[in-house]
Fold this sequence. Notes:
Helices cover 79% and strands 0% of the residues. The chain is mainly α.
Amino acid sequence: MAANSSVPLADCQTYIFFFTALYVVYILLVPLFIFVLYIGFQRWRKRGSATTTSHTDVFTFHMVTLELIGVVGYTIYCYGIYSNQTFLTKVGMIVFSLVSPGQALFHMLTCVERYLAVVHPVIYLRLRRGGGVRIRNISIGGVWCICFVSTTLDDILIAFIIIGFGYLVFSLIVVCFCSISVLFVLIRPGPGEGGGKREGVDQSKQRAFYTIMAIMATLLLRFLSNLVSTSLYMSSVLGDCGEKVMLWSLFWFTVPSSLVLPLLFLQRAGKLPGCKH
């Protein structure tokens, strides 16, 4: 979220501290993002193009790519701060503003995919083939378009806030619907799920439910942080530096959103300690 200021960036020392600490955290997360892409590339090379990659995994790969682009933006922004070059901070802000809408929307698409797998398994199996891949690719293209369009709103703060809340609330509503639907299926399994395979089926559904709940928790955290930051900004109780300190301190609440899909992917791949897929 951008905030124009007449105060030189270098004069806001507390704000610089909060941003630098956040930047260091994301630099430390870069190996995680690269590791996820590396595993995905290894799988693709071993299986070949004949095997369809899981839709959830594809969403994760795009998500970590988006995060890496965001780190590039943070780097440009950081250099702009310490060299006191406003133009570079502006460029960096435009680059990392791609991440915010992409996070929410890729999370939402992941939950929809898990919802279909549990609640509508026949449709899900059908969509794993050619038609589903086309829909997935169109959805991914739409997310990237929204991300790029959002960068043009960086200077129009009110539009940025309204649209930002719009896609976040929409994603939350969809994710909540998915979680309730999956929970209902867990509580009341359909006919034909009894017998020896019941336990395995339920475990698969439980994993889907836990995935959706983890994503919903990160989105709720982001929503609450956005709500607080927007309320404080609109109340005009903070000065220029105070706004920056508040905004960048609340950006810490987006870190779980950056972690949830990569960690869930590594869990499915059996790469986390104590996790077997």
